[in-house]
Amino acid sequence: MNPPTLWPVIVLLVAVAASATFAQEKQTSDADDTSTETVSKVEQEPAKSYDEMGFEELDALVKQLAAKLKDQESLGSGGAITEERIEEQQKANELREQLFKANMALRKKGAEIRQVEREKWLGHLNELTTRLDDMKRERFTILEKFYEASKAKYDAGRVGIDVALAAEIELADAEFELHGRDAYKTRMIRLREWQEEIEAGEANERRQEDYLKVKSQFLKTYIEYLKGTEESYREILKRYP
Predict the structure, then answer these.
(1) Degrees (nearest 5) of the Cα angle 146, 151, 155?
(2) Were both Cys, which of 50, 85, 216, 217 would link to 105 (CB 3.0–4.6 Å)?
């Protein structure tokens, strides 16, 4: 009996099926490799850019990368040089690069936050300084008018020297608040002129007492001025030990 003619057909079908199975398995294997590579890439690279991440996110990322790098370095260290060890070291180098970039981004973000905070507080300071200066000028203007009125009354004999001098002392205080040590010079000129006016008037015991009271304030101011100058000189001399 002759062999059945279907045998070659069966052999051909089996071969085709085996080839198709192998191709499908290879395609599945390639897909798994691609998926693994994609997952690995996703794990290594953040979903956001560094510029989009906040300070806390960057800080957490830096700590995470540092921990991964520590683990990775332990895998790639020690033993003979093998292909696997070289791959582990390459992964460690990639992590170092990512950690460096993340650290730089974290520093940049921190600097930006500090600059914003500094500008905010600088704005508060400028606002406060402006308000203080306005109040100092207003106080000085009020006391200057009060002093002029008190001195006019003293010149007219309506009030004593103590009233007029008290007004002048208040003015000097406001003047110092506004102009600092330069106010000493202005006050010394004002008191010197006042002394000269008293000297030019009618000489009597009361006028002599008034003159001494004004001169006492003049000397007090002069002493304060010289003390400040002395301190400045001492600071200069510290540069030349």
Answers:
(1) 150
(2) 50
Which pLDDT does position 85 carry in this prediction?
66
* Whether the model pTM is above 0.70: no
CB of 153 closer than 8 Å to CB of 163: yes
Q: Is 30 helix (H, G, I), strand (E, B) or coil?
A: helix
- Go through 162-182 and write b for each residue having 16 or more CB atoms within 10 A of its CB, e for each that does not: eebbebbebbbebbbbbeeee
Phi-psi region of 82 (alpha: psi -120 to 50; beta: other; left: phi over 0): beta
Of residues 202, 216, 224, the one with CA closest to residue 162: 216
Q: Cα(27)–Cα(215) distance, rounded to whole angstroms? A: 107
Q: How many residues does the chain have?
A: 241
Helix (H) or strand (E) holding 214: helix 205-237
> Distance (Å, rounded) from C-alpha 172 to C-alpha 221?
10
Is 76 within 8 Å of 85 (Cβ atoms)?
yes
Question: Which segments of the chain have a pLDDT < 50?
Answer: 1-3, 9, 11, 31, 34-43
